[in-house]
Specification:
Length: about 210
């Protein structure tokens, strides 16, 4: 699957807020948003009022960038969410939270979702005893996610756990850092999303 290979910090600056795409760097003085609080490019310092469409588009772009998905996959998540009974926006966020790279990030096994994607793609993760190397794999209740890798890579992941130990683990998963396992206890709820987004704007955008 394709992904954005450009500078992560540029994406944060474009949205005007920290999206925490660079892991622990985002908490330091090196964070680009802290140093340059304006959009990238030659017109970055110019600020104009956004239309309703512009506000909706910016919110969609922000959510896509947080989870590291491109337009086609994001729209597919939305279409699946509309086909399920319930609040479409909440179901959309649930799909994104259930991605395997996002699960590793939320559990503290990865510094960022990009790091989680790399861990998965390098074949270091199993789900219910079977190796999975697809970052978009969706976990479900009672799944057991386990890190299975060599000592060198395991050491790097344990280092991530130490770096992210202050991060709060969502209530929908149980994490055993000693054994490097994650038990999915239930589906994530809207209140389990820890950053400020307005997914209803995305629903309105796609419903135009």
């Amino acid at each position: 699957m394709g992904r954005d290979l450009g500078p992560d910090c540029r994406l944060c600056r474009r949205e005007g807020e920290k999206l925490f795409l660079k892991g622990t760097r985002c908490y330091t003085h090196k964070c680009a948003v802290s140093r340059r609080e304006y959009a990238p490019g030659q017109h970055g310092l110019k600020k104009g009022k956004l239309s309703n469409f512009g506000v909706q588009m910016r919110e969609k772009q922000k959510i896509k960038r947080i989870y590291g998905v491109l337009e086609t996959q994001f729209r597919n998540y939305f279409l699946k969410a509309t086909a399920i009974k319930g609040v479409t926006g909440h179901t959309l966020m649930q799909f994104l939270e259930r991605r395997l790279d996002s699960v590793l990030f939320n559990a503290g096994f990865a510094k960022s979702r990009t790091d989680g994607r790399q861990i998965v793609s390098h074949n270091h993760v199993s789900v219910n005893g079977r190796r999975v190397n697809i970052a978009s794999f969706l976990v479900k209740p009672n799944d057991v996610v386990e890190i299975k890798t060599d000592d060198k890579s395991l050491g790097n992941i344990k280092s991530n756990v130490e770096l992210t130990k202050e991060r709060k683990v969502p209530a929908w998963m149980g994490v055993d850092s000693a054994n490097m396992t994650i038990k999915i206890t239930r589906l994530p709820l809207r209140e389990d999303v820890t950053f400020a987004v307005n997914e209803q704007l995305v629903v309105e955008l796609y419903s135009r």
